[in-house]
Amino acid sequence: MGLESIPKEGSKVKIQSYKHDGSIHRVWSETTILKGTDHVVIGGNNRTLVTESDGRTWVTREPAIVYFHVEYWFNVICMFREDGVYYYCNLSSPFIYDEEALKYIDYDLDIKVYPDGKYHLLDEDEYRLHKNRMKYSEDIDRILRHNVDVLQQWIERKKGPFAPDFIKVWQGRFNNDFKSY
Description:
By secondary structure, the protein is an alpha+beta fold. The longest helix is centred in the last third of the chain and has 20 residues, at about 140-155. It has a single domain (about 10-160), classed as FomD-like (FomD barrel-like fold), CATH 2.40.380. About 25% of the residues lie in helices and about 40% in strands. It is built from three helices and eleven strands; from the N terminus they run βββββββββββααα. The chain is globular and about 45 Å long. The relative contact order is 0.17. The protein has a seven-stranded mixed beta barrel with strand order 1-2-3-6-7-8-10. A hairpin with a 3-residue loop joins strand 2 and strand 3 (about 40-45). The termini are far apart.
């Protein structure tokens, strides 16, 4: 890996998700960077090719805005569907960007948020299985549990990517400035 840097606004980057043991989990082939700072990366994608660890591929069905923050152990995907905005939140390591891709470790736990604001914590069984199999430390477990709480507070308080203005601004910016043809 090279020196970590900041992805440039308007550039197209890969997103690579890993598991704790270093194995590749999932790769999004192309995300357009809408904002890149040393703390936050916001991107947009639509009909993006995704490759799973077993080689299977699929294409995202709807436009989405992705949100990564260097201080928090989660990232958020805001998906725009006909009946509203759905959020898929991955509990993960903070991101790094190294010119090859934006990268993070996926820690199994997810929160799905519906347009009406209701949300559910998902994949607790998978988390327990991988925690044992990949030997997540107690520190990692404590950090992730704390970040589940932080994420739930953000959802309930409509903070960060859950704020209505966030969606309006970044969806508009993606649609108007960086539309893929």
